[in-house]
Amino acid sequence: MRALVVEDDPRIADDLDRALSASGFRVERLSDGESAWFRGGTESYDLIVLDLNLPRLDGLTVLKRWRAEGCNAPVLILTARGAWTERVEGIDAGADDYLPKPFRMEELIARARALVRRAGGHGAALQQFGRLTVDLNRMSASLDGIPVPVTPLEFRLVAYLALNRDRVVAPSELLEHLYGDDDSREANALEALVARLRRKLGPGVIATRRGFGYHLDERA
Q1: In order of start, what are the domains of the chain with their CATH numbers?
Q2: Which of 46, 69, 126, 177 could form a disulfide with 1 if both were Cys (CB 3.0 to 4.6 A apart)?
């Protein structure tokens, strides 16, 4: 899952980066509104954490521009502003959730996970596909109730397919959402990752639709 954190306080940005990364997100960071407006309008994210008090362009203006331009990524607003009128303004501008500072990181992660699930049309943290169960909160997978050891990258792959269970996901989309800017984004890296997961989950769980991409097969 690919997350964009837009926060100009380096300490808070570091904390968000660590917490989201530990929760299965691939995090990218920006510290000003103008860069965020451009990145959010040209890239695809599963979650955006947006501070309102940003240099160069305030967060509320960024959010309004994103929504006007068709950016539909779930947006969680962070702000030190506590007035209920400002919270209403943020929600009306297109925010999906709102968390005032200071906040507990555990609450932010819970809200982030819920936003990603709802964006995929799934309210439950447990996703079932035949013998396979994917626990989006615990970042785990099991077959017939028996835990399957998966690496963070392997979990990101199976979780992304679970959250997009109603469609075939193209390799290019998976590469974009799984790998960081400094990681290998070659197609053969993705093929190797899928092959490793198939050895752990069984050959029929991750299905290939030739020429289109991958999906989880509930009949496996």
Answers
A1: 2-120 (3.40.50.2300), 126-216 (1.10.10.10)
A2: 46
- For 152-208, how does the pLDDT look when each residue is reduced to its tens digit (9 = 90+)? 999 999 999 999 988 999 999 999 888 866 555 677 889 999 999 999 998 889 999
Give pTM, 2 decimals: 0.84
Closest of 53, 85, 50 to residue 71, by C-alpha:
50
SS3 102: coil
Site of tokens 């990145």: 39
Q: Is 177 helix (H, G, I), strand (E, B) or coil?
A: helix
- Ramachandran assignment for 198, one of left (phi > 0), alpha (psi -120 to 50 degrees), beta (any other): alpha
Which run of H or of E encompasses 176?
helix 171-178
Identity of the residue numbered 47: L
